[in-house]
Amino acid sequence: MIPIPETEIDRLIAEDVGFGDLTTRALGIVGQPGRIGFAARDPMVACATEEAARILNRLGAVPRLLVASGTAVTPGTLLLEATGAAGALHAGWKVAQTLMEWSAGIASAVRDIRDAARAVTPGITIACTRKSVPLTRAFSIKAVLAGGGAMHRTGLGDTILVFPEHRAFLRDEELAVTIARLRAAAPERAIVVEVADPDDAVRAAAAGADVVQLEKFSPDAVAELRARLSDAGTFHARIAAAGGVTAMNAAAYAKAGADILVTSAPYMARPRDVQVRITAG
What we know:
Elements: H1 6-17, H2 22-27, E1 33-40, E2 44-45, H3 49-58, E3 62-65, E4 72-73, E5 78-85, H4 86-118, E6 125-128, H5 137-146, E7 150-151, E8 160-162, H6 164-167, H7 175-185, E9 191-195, H8 198-206, E10 211-215, H9 219-231, E11 238-242, H10 250-256, E12 260-263, E13 274-280
Parallel strand pairs: 6-7, 6-12, 8-9, 9-10, 10-11, 11-12
Antiparallel strand pairs: 1-5, 1-13, 2-4, 3-5
């Protein structure tokens, strides 16, 4: 799991509690002791429970973490509880709950895709793109990893991925020349080339691409390309199927011969419901 900096915790708190809790203050219950518990209402892969605990702790409560991120749980499972003053519990309530629900939605969606694909091809990689909701990258990456996926790219600086939009600026340069230049510039990095048609995919593999990324190919088209690459002797190139990959078609893409499934679908997943109970005393 990646470390989430304290600044992210503070930013979440400030967004919701930046000017205090008017209701709790007006009722005069800020200092009264109480207890809060967060339980899964849906089946889910728990996520961001550690950060939820840090939120409560930062506000002055004493949390007890019961379920770690990445754990599949059933409805009714208690994820986290804390004791402390009512002011701290109410201040952390919605921030912690919403973070766990949203993160669990992503993690659970990744796990669903991974399980569907690995039922056909054990070990296949589910890689999520960098198309997360803006300003949520750190938590999104944590959720992807908690679900058993990998990051396709964490940002522009960590991989070489040549899009057709890059090649538009290279005029008529042969792809083999482009790949040779990239290897000289970044010799330790794999080179991924995205293609939109089978002929270009074969050319990219023959030119030495480590990964050929197939943009919106159907499973049948992936299978046909896998056969062509094998016949052409360029089977060394890994095939990444990208665009429209979900839990519904992950098995079909795995059966077709994709080595990597690239998706951004989990970022739009429905949050998983977390039930909260607050009691006095």
